[in-house]
Design brief:
Number of domains: 2
Number of strands: 2
Order of helices and strands: HHHHHHHHHHHHEEHH
Largest sheet: 2 strands, antiparallel
Number of helices: 14
Strand order of the largest sheet: 1-2
Structural class: mainly alpha
Length: about 450
């Protein structure tokens, strides 16, 4: 499995730390590095757990990010728990009054516990990596405070928060969703313009991925009742609005620049070889955290917001995908425009409208812009080091952006370049993703 150089670097760094820092006198890292290290291993587990999918992964990021925040929020007087503001979670256990806690140890224990449980199907070797990272930081912080009672109390509290959130997760409709990626008994209505299994596919299946995912519980109650995006009526007449959307895809394929090809590959995030599209959003959060080096609660809030935003974006996107159940370019264009046409990038196995890439990217951009500003320049090196795609004669080169919205817009456009989505699907996806991200921003994070 190919791994981006950033992921490799972070993982090798962690492994080096494991080997060199068994000495309990090691200096505790800065706050941001503790949080970012757990984000790194979250993406590593996401990428290296078989039968994963963007839908299931998005859900995992939601619970893992929320756990990071809730495990430490009571240690920061200006902040408050958001548990009671979420969809059916209710109040979580609070720390005992008058007793001291180490919030680094609480976060460390909570992250290990939620990842082990939410990714229960991952390999024994991956679970050992989680255990190793947990033990490494436990040694460092326990040695730094020199108080076994505080250490044990903090670890216990972090684990209790993780297990409470995990128990809540089991009732959302997506628990162990990797066991039912495809419903082979479900029969869909055949209608003009409906989704068809493509011949040129990312992972070929006669059945679409997670057709029931849109029934799952959202993290935010408001996100369960969003107004669906507006689609276009089916019309194969040349010159009609519907036809012209596909004609744009067809014409673009002829004139793709090398940079556009690179963008199409960069944001593809095939779950068979990467940390999935929501994992890429979690990675952007890590870029922001490592660049700005905020305190621990700001880091945790970042991952909680991004995680829940991408989770609700995918849930709603899948609800609407099966509501509209629309075709992709690889079925429309060969039938009505050019029988020999083939997209630059293969189709994923699910309906088209709206774009999942665009929705989760819009949700992420809304959240990260609110946290880090609208002029946050950064370079994304997530896939640097992956072997060149010889079939498409395209390499994985780093992408530079002047804002999170610029990255989100390229994420959406990458699906147009790849021939995966018509422009309207990307536009509607960005709009609805932004709405979801704004809902997350409007939670009362501070007192």
């Amino acid at each position: 499995m190919r791994v981006g150089i950033m992921v490799i670097f972070c993982w090798l760094l962690a492994c080096t730390v494991f080997l060199s820092c068994q000495d309990k006198k090691a200096t505790p890292p800065e706050d941001y590095e503790l949080a970012a290290s757990w984000a790194d291993i979250t993406n590593y587990i996401t990428q290296n757990t078989p039968a994963n999918s963007p839908t299931f992964a998005s859900r995992c990021f939601g619970y893992i990010g929320l756990t990071m925040y809730e495990a430490i929020v009571h240690g920061y007087p200006d902040y408050q728990s958001v548990a009671g503001q979420l969809n059916g979670l209710g109040k979580l256990q609070e720390p005992e009054q008058g007793l001291e806690y180490n919030w680094h140890l609480a976060l460390n224990a909570a992250q290990a516990e939620i990842i082990r449980n939410i990714y229960i199907q991952t390999s024994a070797n991956n679970k050992r990596k989680i255990d190793s990272l947990e033990q490494h930081y436990a040694n460092i912080y326990s040695a730094a405070i020199l108080n076994d009672s505080i250490a044990e109390r903090s670890v216990s509290y972090g684990k209790k928060i993780a297990l409470q959130i995990f128990e809540w997760s089991k009732t959302d409709g997506g628990h162990r969703g990797y066991l039912s990626n495809f419903d082979k008994k479900l029969v869909f209505e055949e209608k003009p313009g409906c989704w068809q299994p493509p011949l040129y596919a990312q992972s070929f299946s006669h059945y679409p991925l997670h057709p029931h995912w849109g029934k799952n519980r959202t993290f935010l109650s408001n996100d369960s009742s969003l107004v669906p995006p507006e689609s276009l009526p089916y019309d194969t007449t040349p010159g009609s609005a519907y036809y012209e959307q596909f004609r744009q895809v067809y014409e673009k394929r002829k004139i793709l620049s090398q940079d556009e090809k690179e963008a199409a590959l960069w944001w593809g995030d095939d779950p068979d070889v990467s940390f999935t599209p929501p994992g890429h959003s979690y990675h952007l959060a890590t870029i922001a955290v490592r660049k700005t080096r905020p305190d621990l609660i700001h880091c945790a809030e970042t991952y909680a917001r991004v995680g829940m935003a991408v989770a609700d974006a995918f849930r709603n996107c899948w609800k609407w995908k099966y509501q509209f159940y629309t075709e992709r370019s690889n079925t429309f264009i060969p039938r009505y425009i050019d029988a020999r046409w083939e997209s630059f990038w293969p189709d994923p196995p699910f309906p088209s409208f709206p774009s999942g890439h665009a929705m989760q990217a819009g949700a992420t951009a809304a959240v990260l812009t609110d946290l880090y500003g609208d002029k946050f320049a950064f370079t994304d090196s997530a896939h640097v080091g992956r072997a060149k795609d010889e079939l498409r004669n395209t390499a994985f080169n780093p992408r530079h952006f002047n804002s999170f919205w610029e990255a989100a817009e390229e994420t959406a456009m990458s699906r147009f370049y790849g021939g995966i989505h018509i422009p309207l699907e990307n536009e509607r996806g960005l709009e609805k993703g932004k709405e979801i991200g704004m809902n997350v921003n409007q939670l009362k994070w501070k007192k």
